[in-house]
DNA sequence: CTGAAAGCGCTTACAG
DNA sequence: CTGAAAGCGCTTACAG
C-alpha cells in the first residue's frame, strides 16, 4: 500500500476497479472499446482516487502530446496577441493546447525556447519570420517536429509558411506617402539584425523611393529597438535635423505611437507639420490622436489559418506552398500632404 | 540497426560510445562524476548523432521539468505582458522555462489549462487572482504542484500570493475623484463574474462613495466585457443619460481608452466636460490624449518577486504569508474638477 | 569511475 | 471485451 498522499497511478485505479491497467487505459482513451458495466466501475475508481494520467508517461508511450508551441518575439504591445488569440482558439476547438514563450527578439533565446518546447514534446511549432540559423531548421527536421512560419511570406520560401509580403506591403504605403508630395522622408525602423520583418519593411521604403527618384541614401533612417520610448527618442532626433523630414515612416505601430507622442511634446502638429505612419494596424492605431495611417494586417485570419495548416502538418498532411495573405493600406489622420509641397 | 531517420536515443549514444546508458546519462546530468576521457568520447557520440534527451522519459524518471506555467486571462493589450516579461526573465536566469497560456477570462478554460500544464509536468504555476473553484486548489495540492497567486492581495488569503489590494487601490483613486467635487460618478466595470480584480475594484469605488455621502446605488455602473470597443460603447451609453456623470471611472486602462475615444466621438472634451480614470497604468495610459489618470501597478516588481517566490515553493521552501506591493495614484490630464462644482 | 538492472507510468499489439 | 506483457527512453540506487 503506497501512502495515500502520493499521486495515484493507472495501477492504483486498476487494482481498485479490479481490472488490468490496459482496461483502464482504454476507458480513458477509447471508451467505446470497453463495455459499459466495467467502464462505469473504472470511472468510479478514477473519480474516487482523483486520478489524472501522468503526461510524461503518456507522451513516451503514445508519442503524441496534442501540444503546439508558439515562440514569439514579444508578448508586449499586442503585436502578436490578436493573431495568437485566434491561433489558440482554432487549436482549442481541434483538441490541441497552445503553449507560448517569448524571446525578447533575441535569436539565442529563441533557439533555447525551440529546444525547450521540442523537448517538452510539442507536436508542432509556430515561429515568427523566416530568418534563423539553418541548423535550427535541421534540428527540427531531425526531431520530426513540423514548424510553420508566420508573419512572413515570399514565394520562394523553403519552409511551410503563412503571412504577407512585408516588403511589398511597406512599399505600397510608401507610395501613398510619396504620392502626397513627400520627398524628405524619415524612417524609424525596428532593429534589423535578426528580424526579417524589419529589414524587409525598410527595403520596401527604399524600393518606393528609388522608383520615384529619391535616392535611398537620402532617406534618414534611424534604427532602434522596439518600444514607445525608443520611437519617441528617434522622432525627437529626426525632427532636430537641419532639414527635418515632412513624413516619418515607422516600422510598426508601436514606434509610430512613440513618434506621435514626441511630435506633440515638441509642439509639432500631425499631419500639418509632419506626417507619421505605422505598420500592423493593432488596436493602438485607432486610439492615438491623430489616428494612425498604417498597413492593415489580417491578424485573426492569419492565426486561424496558421492553426489549420500546422495541425495538417502535425497529422501527417503534405507540405503546401507558402500562403500569402492580403494586406491593405489604412489611410487615417496621421498622413497628410507634404508641408512645402 | 534502426533506420537512420529515426530519433537517436540514449541507447544509441551508449552503443556508439561503447559505454552503458548510465554513463551517458551521467555525462549529461552530472558530468563531474565521469572521467574526462570517457566523457569526451560520449560527447562526441552525442554530437555525431545529434542526440537530444527525450523530455517525457526524463520527466518520468527524474520527476522534475524546470518548467513553470503561467495562466493569464488574456495576452491582449499587454495588461499582464509587462509583469510576465519580468517573470520570465527572472525564471530564465534561474534555469527555468516559462510556458504561458490564456483563458479569455473563462473559468472553464482556466481549469483545462491548469490541468494541461500540470499534466505536462509543470513544476509550479502562476495564477492570476484568487477566486476559483476550491476543487482546483485541492487538485493542485493533490498533484503537489505549488501555485502562486498574483495580481491580488488580501491579508487573509489562504494561498501563497503576491499582489496588491485592488479594493483599497481603487478606493484611493475614487477619493481623488470625489475630492475634485464629482458627485455624479459613472463606472465602467469589467465583467465581475469570476474576476475578483474587477469586483474588488468596483467595491473600492462604492467604499469611497459611501464614505462621502454618495449612496452607492446612485453610482451608474455599467458592466461590460474587456475591450476598447466595449469601453467606448459603455461610455456612449453613460453620457446619453438624462443626468450624465461628470466623471467616469473605468475598471482598467483599456476600458478607459475606449471611453476617451467615445468622448471624443461625441464631441465631449476630457476633462472639461467629463473626467475619465483607468487602472493598471499600462503604456497605453501615457499614449492616449489626454493622458490618463490611473492607478499605477508595479508590474515588473510583481513579476520578478513572483518568480523568486514561486521557485522557492517549487524547491521545497516554506509557504510565506501573502505579499503586498504598494500601488500609487497617477494623476494625469484626464481627471479635472467637476464641471458644475 | 562504471555497469547491470529496476523502475518511472503509461499504451498497444497480440492472444484469448 | 479483456488481460499479460513488452516497450517507450530515461535516471538512479546498488554493486563492484
Oligomeric state, counting identical vs distinct chains: homodimer
Number of helices of chain A: 13
The CATH architecture name of the largest domain in chain A reads 3-Layer(aba) Sandwich
Mean pLDDT of chain A: 90
Radius of gyration of chain A: 26 Å
What's the helical proportion of residues of chain A?
40-55%
CATH class bucket of the largest domain in chain A: Alpha Beta
Low-confidence segments of chain A, given as residue ranges, are 1-5
CATH topology of the largest domain in chain A: Rossmann fold
What's the order of the H and E elements of chain A?
A: HHHHEHEHEHEEHEHEHEHEHEHEE
Tell me, what's the shape of chain A? Answer: elongated
* Computed structural class of chain A: alpha/beta
Structural commentary:
- The structure is a homodimer of 341-residue chains.
- Chain A has 341 residues and is α/β, with parallel strands linked by helices.
- Chain A has three domains: 1-39, no CATH class; 65-164 and 298-326, Response regulator (Rossmann fold, 3-Layer(aba) Sandwich); 166-296, Response regulator (Rossmann fold).
- Helices cover 44% and strands 15% of the residues of chain A.
- The first copy, chain A, has 13 helices and twelve strands.
- In chain A, strands 2-1-3-4-5-11 form a six-stranded parallel beta sheet, sandwiched between helices. The first copy, chain A, has a four-stranded parallel beta sheet with strand order 7-6-8-9, sandwiched between helices.
- In chain A, helix 1 (10-17) crosses helix 3 (36-49).
- Chain A is elongated and about 90 Å long.
- Chains A and B meet through helix 4, helix 5, strand 2, helix 6 and helix 11 of A and helix 4, helix 5, strand 2, helix 6 and helix 11 of B.
- Chain A binds a DNA duplex (16 and 16 nucleotides) through residues 9-11, 19-23, 25-26, 29, 33-35, 38, 53-63.
Amino acid at each position: 500500500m503506497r501512502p495515500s498522499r502520493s499521486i495515484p497511478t493507472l495501477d492504483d485505479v486498476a487494482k481498485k476497479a479490479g481490472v488490468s491497467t490496459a482496461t483502464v487505459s482504454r476507458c480513458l482513451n477509447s471508451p467505446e472499446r470497453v463495455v459499459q458495466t466495467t467502464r462505469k466501475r473504472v470511472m468510479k475508481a478514477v473519480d474516487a482516487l482523483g486520478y489524472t494520467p501522468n503526461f510524461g508517461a503518456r507522451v513516451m508511450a503514445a508519442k503524441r502530446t496534442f501540444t503546439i508551441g508558439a515562440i514569439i518575439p514579444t508578448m508586449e504591445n499586442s503585436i502578436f496577441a490578436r493573431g495568437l488569440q485566434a491561433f489558440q482558439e482554432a487549436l482549442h476547438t481541434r483538441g490541441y493546447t497552445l503553449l507560448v514563450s517569448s524571446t525578447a527578439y533575441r535569436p539565442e533565446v529563441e533557439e533555447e525556447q525551440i529546444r525547450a518546447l521540442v523537448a517538452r514534446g510539442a507536436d508542432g511549432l509556430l515561429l515568427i519570420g523566416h530568418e534563423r540559423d539553418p541548423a535550427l531548421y535541421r534540428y527540427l527536421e531531425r526531431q520530426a517536429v513540423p514548424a510553420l512560419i508566420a508573419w512572413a511570406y515570399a514565394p520562394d520560401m523553403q519552409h511551410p509558411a503563412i503571412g504577407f509580403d512585408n516588403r511589398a506591403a511597406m512599399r505600397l504605403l510608401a507610395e501613398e506617402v510619396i504620392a502626397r508630395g513627400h520627398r524628405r522622408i524619415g524612417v524609424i525602423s525596428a532593429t534589423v539584425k535578426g528580424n526579417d520583418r524589419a529589414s524587409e519593411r525598410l527595403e520596401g521604403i527604399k524600393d518606393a523611393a528609388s522608383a520615384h527618384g529619391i535616392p535611398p541614401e537620402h532617406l534618414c533612417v534611424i534604427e532602434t529597438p522596439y518600444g514607445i520610448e525608443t520611437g519617441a527618442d528617434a522622432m525627437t532626433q529626426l525632427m532636430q535635423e537641419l532639414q527635418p523630414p515632412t513624413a516619418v515612416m515607422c516600422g510598426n505601430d508601436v514606434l509610430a505611437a512613440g513618434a506621435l507622442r514626441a511630435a506633440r511634446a515638441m509642439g509639432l502638429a500631425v499631419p500639418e507639420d509632419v506626417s507619421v505612419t505605422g505598420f500592423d494596424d493593432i488596436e493602438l492605431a485607432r486610439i492615438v490622436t491623430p489616428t494612425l495611417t498604417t498597413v492593415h494586417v489580417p491578424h485573426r485570419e492569419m492565426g486561424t489559418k496558421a492553426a489549420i495548416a500546422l495541425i495538417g502538418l502535425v497529422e501527417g498532411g503534405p507540405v503546401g506552398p507558402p500562403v500569402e495573405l492580403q494586406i491593405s493600406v489604412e489611410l487615417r489622420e496621421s498622413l497628410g500632404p507634404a508641408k512645402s509641397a
